[in-house]
Amino acid sequence: MVMNIYIYIEGAGDEDDTELLLRPRPGFIKFFHELYDIAGENIKIFLVMCGSRRDAYEDFKTALESQPEAFNVLLIDAESSVDSTVRPWKHLKNRTEDHPWILDAVNFQDEQCHLMMQTMEAWFIADIDALKEFYGQKFKEDKIQRGIKQLQNVEKVSKDTLKVWLVAATRHTEKGKYHKTKHAPKLLKLLDADKVRQASPYCDRLFTTLTAKMGISTNQPSQE
Questions:
Q1: Structural domain for 31, as ranges
Q2: I want to staple 139 with a disulfide (CB 3.0 to 4.6 A). Which of 70, 135, 197, 221 is the partner?
Q3: Does residue 127 sit in the same domain as residue 77?
Q4: Quick one: 130 and 72 in the same domain?
Q5: Residue 113 belongs to what H/E stretch?
Q6: Considering its fold, how many domains does the chain have in total?
Q7: Is the same domain home to 8 and 109?
Q8: Are 223 and 78 in contact (CB under 8 A)?
Q9: Residues 43 and 151 in one domain
């Protein structure tokens, strides 16, 4: 029997560009290659880019009704600092910025909600080598390294701070300042998922949850 896993992901570059939603996402596919390898032929993993966080949530809810036999997952930015004692659904409900649409998230399983730290860019600073490879010799990592050392946790870096760090580090590179739509998909393809998992308990939680759902243990520390 074939098992289907659907991951509904917030974002696709410009949320107003509907064409982006329909394009293949090789960056995410590459990042999750370990999961695809584990899945083999009997488990199918589908990545669904949804645009805004509200659209991702609505698509996830629709999937729960239309394909209840599948394992449906919501992958969404945390947008703000997450208390380690608070579950993802609770974190989203606690955010007034996500009201009122998130408030009807009741009786959903904790394992079906996952957070991309405060924003996906935190995955990038978790793998400085990938940033260096992409941007080249003029990439300046000092500010990012100092910031990570001070905060001691990439999940604590705010969305605004991440933007400042990345712009400062890439300002003089041949590719120019960090641009989410143009650069993020290519950076995703270069990321070492193991490095990101080590730096981000929430990223590790996603991998651990999905491998457990597929009946495989990765022997990685989990937040569960």
A1: 3-117+200-213
A2: 135
A3: no
A4: no
A5: strand 113-115
A6: 2
A7: yes
A8: no
A9: no
Convert the pLDDT of each residue in 46-87 to its tens digit: 999 898 999 999 999 999 999 999 999 999 999 998 877 889
pTM, to two decimals: 0.87
Same domain for 62 and 19, yes or no, is: yes
Reported as type and span, the H/E element at residue 28 is: helix 26-31
- pLDDT single digits (tens) 15-40: 444 444 445 568 888 999 999 999 98
Q: Is residue 218 part of a domain?
A: no
50 and 83 housed in the same domain:
yes
**Quick one: how far is CA 100 from the chain centroid?**
23
Residue 224 CA from chain centroid, whole number: 18
- Whether the link from the prior residue into 100 is cis, omega within 30° of 0, is yes
Which residues, in sequence order, are bridge partners of residue 76? 115
Q: Residue 45 — φ and ψ, nearest 5°?
A: -110, 125
> Which one-letter amino acid corresponds to residue 158?
S
Both tokens assigned to 105: 């998230």
Do 169 and 132 share a structural domain? yes
Residue 44 to residue 18: CA distance in whole angstroms:
25
Q: What whole-number distance in Å separates Cα of residue 52 and Cα of residue 58?
A: 10
Dihedral of the CA atoms 128, 136, 142, 11 (nearest 10)?
Answer: -50
The whole-angstrom separation of Cα 129 and Cα 42 is 34
